[in-house]
Design brief:
Blueprint: H1 3-33, H2 37-40, H3 44-67, H4 95-106, H5 112-123, H6 131-137, H7 143-156, H8 160-169, H9 175-186, H10 191-202, H11 212-225, H12 234-244, H13 250-262, H14 269-279, H15 283-296, H16 302-311, H17 315-331
Amino acid sequence: MNNCAKKNLSPYAGRAVRGAKGAKMGKKGEKFFSPFLPILLPTSQFLRSLIVCLTLVVCPASISVRAQTPLPVAKARPVYDQCASLSNASGAASSVNDDVAKAVAALKGKDLKTREQAAALLGKSCDARAVEPLQNLLKDEDPMARIAAVEALGRLGADSSVEALTEMTFNEKDWRVRMAMIGSMLSFKSANARAGVLNGIANPLGEDISDINDLYVRCSAILSCNQLKAVTYSRKAILFLRFFLTSKYQITRQMAEQTLHELKNTRNAAAEFRAMLKNDLNPEMRRWAAEWMGKIGFDNIGEALAEAAANDPEPKVKQAAATALAALKDVK
C-alpha cells in the first residue's frame, strides 16, 4: 500500500483502535461496577416509590387550590317597578303599538338574540298584547330565551302571569332561569307569587343538596324573602338555612354560614331572630337564635340578648345569649 493510501486510511484505523481500547476498558469497568449496579440504578420498586412520593406532594397542592376557590356570595335579588297598568290597543295602531306587534312576531324567530331583544322590548311596553306571547316563550328550549321571558313578565306585572311562573318553579331545572324567577316573582304584590319563591325555589323539601349552583339560587331566594315588607315569609326562609347547616356536605354548610352572615344586610332578619329568641317554645331554637345573633352581629340586639342571658328558663339558652353578648362587646 502506498503512503497516500495509508494516509487516507489512518483516521479510520485510529478510530478502530480507539474503539477497541474503549471496549476493553468497558469490560473492565463493567467488572468493577457490576456489584454496585443494583444500588446505583433505580429499580422498578424505587421508581414506583418515587411516583407515590411525588403524588403525595403534588396532589394535596392541587386539592388545596380547588378547596380555596371562593363560594359565590348569595345576595337578595332586586325587584322590578312594574307597569301601573297595561294598555290594550285597538283599531288603528300607533307607531309604538306597531313596534309591539313586530316584537310579538319576533318572539317566534329562530335567532336567539332576536327573541331576547323582542322580549326585552315587550317587557317595557306596558302593552297587554305582550303577556300571552311572553308566557308562551317560557317554554322555549333555550334557557336564555326563558330568562328574557321571565324578566319581561316581571316588569309587565300582569296577574295572569303569576300562575305560569309559579308552576314553572316546580319544573324549571336551569339554575340561571330559577335565579331570574326570584326577582320577577317577588315583584308581584301577590301572596301566591311570593309563596312560590319561598316554597318552589328556596325550600329544599328535605333534600340534602350539594350542587353549588342550586344552593346559590336557594340562598339568594332566602335573602330575597327577608327583604320583603311582608314579613310572612322571612322566618321560614331563615329556617331553611338552619337545615342546610346539618348537611353532610361541607360546601353546603359553608354556603349556609355565609348566607346567614349576609342576613345582616336584609330588612327582616334581625327582628326575626329577636322574635325567635324571645318567643319560640323550643329551647334549642332559642339557643340557636342567640348563638347566631352573636355570630352575625346584628345592630340593636344587645337588649334582647341581655334579657335572655338573665331570664331565660333554660341554662343553655342563657349561656348562648351571654356568649353572644360578649362577642358583640368584643367587636365593638
